[in-house]
Amino acid sequence: MFRPALQIVAVLVSWMTATTALADPQYFHKTLAGRIGDRHGFTMNLKNVDGRLTGSYRPAGKRNDLYLSGEIDPSGTLTMNAFGSAGQRTGIFTGKLVSDTLDGNWASADGDRPLPVYAHQTSEIIMGSKREMLTQAIGTYVLDSVSGAGCPSGVWQSWRDKGRWKSNFSVVEDGHVEVSDVSLTREDLHRLNSMTVNLDTSLATRLSVEGKVLLSIPYRDAGMQYEISQPHNAGIEYQISQPPNSVMEDHLKTLSPATTVYNEHLYLLARDAIDFAPAMSGNYLSNEVGVVTVSYAVVGKTFDVYLRDDNGCSGSVFSFRRKG
């Protein structure tokens, strides 16, 4: 099983955009079904996060999805570009999405052949209370994957394939992606297989490695365990090629003790006093860590432990899936 870099980056970006809302009015995740013109049926998966639209749609009779990216304002007026798997733009949607109805137009990438679009909502993801979501998630979770990205273009990933761990590293050079396998030692495999997250009946969350509890997060009805105690400024080498502001500080400003659910992740902890990174490290991961966050992916049903370096340039997500 190969996990593409775009999927990894999407996971990392979801942490960067965390906010304080549990029921954000600028959020929805809907599936729709409709038609383009009189003959072209389609299904659509559409997510709105603070006015930014992402998702996909699949024309009837086709095997592959086309990807969507666009914007929507508070009145429901939207514009979305559609892209093929190679990144080429294939069309543009304009119109209005109000309640459970999309009404608008589709045009080809060059603006020709405009056709009317109509679709209706077939389902929607609704978030429950924090207690409801965690109660449904009680159990033991084993490590399923480690996915990371770093400056300027490196991606590393380790994952379970039919019960066995595989690992590789890829980098973009001269416009080409170079992928190389990573040799995991016996110690690496033992460590990967020993990592668990346990959510008990008191709704406390514990991260353990090799039988040792590294993190224990007690339940609280509102907000998250927020323990950011010092500034996190981008390093001088990173600032040479970036604006002279702190990337990490900008990310941390989106988190607060009141942060709960955003973009379908329930945030439980943010901490910068970290002494356990070496216990999670191996050939699959650097141990340069400045901040850790722990969240529960409500739709994906995974616990995600995100280790990020101080300059905001790289990080790795440990994703845990329920045992059995």
Features:
324 residues, mainly beta, Lipocalin, 13-stranded mixed beta sheet, 8-stranded antiparallel beta barrel, globular, disordered N terminus
Mass-distribution shape: globular
For the sheet with most strands, the description reads: 13 strands, mixed
How many structural domains does the protein architecture include?
2
Mean pLDDT: 83
Helicity level: 10-25%
Tally of helical segments? 6
Strand coverage percent: over 45%
Q: Kindly, what is the distance between the CA atoms of the first and last residues, rounded to a whole number of angstroms?
A: 19 Å
E-strand count: 21
> What structural category do the secondary elements indicate?
mainly beta
The Rg value, from CA coordinates, equals: 21 Å
Task: Show unreliable segments.
Answer: 1-25, 234-247
Topology of this structure?
Layout: H1 5-16, E1 27-36, E2 40-49, E3 52-59, E4 66-72, E5 77-83, E6 89-98, E7 101-108, E8 115-124, H2 130-136, E9 139-150, E10 154-161, E11 164-173, E12 176-181, H3 186-194, E13 196-199, E14 205-209, E15 212-217, E16 225-227, H4 236-240, H5 247-252, E17 261-262, E18 265-271, H6 277-280, E19 291-297, E20 302-308, E21 315-322
Parallel strand pairs: 16-18
Antiparallel strand pairs: 1-2, 1-8, 2-3, 3-4, 4-5, 5-6, 6-7, 7-8, 9-10, 9-13, 9-21, 10-11, 11-12, 13-14, 14-15, 17-18, 18-19, 19-20, 20-21
